[in-house]
Amino acid sequence: MQAADIIAIVLVLGAIIGCLNSLYFRLPPAIGVLLGSLALSALIVTADRLFGLHALGWIRGTLNSANLPHLFLDGTLALLLFAASLHVDFAALRQRRWMIVLLATASVIVSTVVFGFGMWAIFRLVGANVPLAWCLVLGAVLAPTDAIVVATLLRRVNLPESLRAAIVGESLFNDGAAVVLFIVALRVTHGEPIVVGGGDVAVMLVREILGGAGIGIIFAWIAVLAIRAVKDDGLRLLIELALALGAYRVANAAGLSGPIAVVTAGMWLVNALHRAAPGGDIRPTLVAFWNLLDQFLNTMLFLLIGFQVLGLTFQISHFLQVVLAIPLAILARLISVAMPLAFARSSPRAKSHEAAALTWAGLRGGISVALALTLPPSPWREDLLVVCYAVVVVFTIVVQGLTLPAVLRRIYGAPPAEPAPALEGPRT
């Protein structure tokens, strides 16, 4: 099957599932598409076993040949992060900048360590005996939160603007730290010594994050000059696309953080253009394009996440691992966000509210699944993938995603916000 055939099938299925969700179920679009793809996957598995269609092997081979995880990590992620960064309240972000820095770095490390050691104990309890290094790899996979889904769900509630900025800002920037920890943990599994106490990990984090931010600022500065110089909306759109993909790929090629580069570039671009034209010179053509692109990529991403379940082989022994992994993921998230909040200048009641909100808003998503699917072959790969899917797909996206607005309204006692547009166009 050609790549164009796969894209065509995904588009048709995405359109059908999206229409059914919009007309009958009215769930958040990403969650509706994901649940639809999971239901379709379950239907395929059931039909394959009942009627002996032998379709699963062909589907798994097609998904593997498409190399979807690398496609997501090498390009799609850049566009999604760039689109999300265009809607960040820069002033609110600056007010909580130190908290966001801690959440996007220290909290990622704490979450990785807590979840990794916890899963090591759980695996030993159920007799899987997965090495600690591989458990830390799994911790790094599940450390980053999903900026796109979180930002969409937060539009459904009224929150303190500083807390909204902290949640969205963390989810935008923690991808870079998580990828660094993932690479470090993988190197340990291959026998490479990493001196944690000697500062190896800290040096890598600082270099990748600061270097990625520097590349993003340089590329955005050049893009701003170009956008100001031209008048054609189509050309300006091309410049924005070149900025997103160019900054991301150059940062990755230089061994720096591509996610940090593209997020920094998007926020720098919006801030610079907004200062040059107060009031937001929003052009309908560009707004419509980014709305369409964001919806298209999200639909494809969550549809493919659901179909990836077809590539897994579930066993009875996985059930206990999953049952214990889900509360462990919540605990790891709570500990990781509570530690930075301990240094905040606010009342204990406010801190407890923010800790609860940040914990339940810690939805994992596409980058966690993509990182998990890039794991090299090992005797424990299937165990790691099953836990990842249970935590990411079944619990964080579906359960936490569907209940997040209600939980946040209960914590803060705020009425639902007025329905907002799917995306507010970038201020370009």
Overview of the structural elements:
Helices cover 77% and strands 0% of the residues. The model is unreliable at 415-428 (pLDDT under 50). It has helices at residues 3-25, 29-51, 55-66, 68-85, 90-95, 97-104, 106-125, 132-141, 147-154, 161-189, 200-229, 233-253, 258-276, 284-307, 317-341, 348-360, 366-373, 381-412.
With helices defined by DSSP (H or I, 4 residues minimum), what is the helix count?
18
Taking pLDDT < 50 over at least 5 consecutive residues as the criterion, the unreliable ranges are 415-428
Envelope shape: globular
Please count the beta strands (DSSP E, at least 2 residues each): 0
Distance between the termini: 40 Å
Summarize the main sheet: none
Strand coverage percent: under 5%
Helix content: over 70%
Structurally, the number of domains stands at 1
Q: Cα-atom Rg, whole angstroms?
A: 21 Å
Question: Secondary-structure element order, as H and E?
Answer: HHHHHHHHHHHHHHHHHH
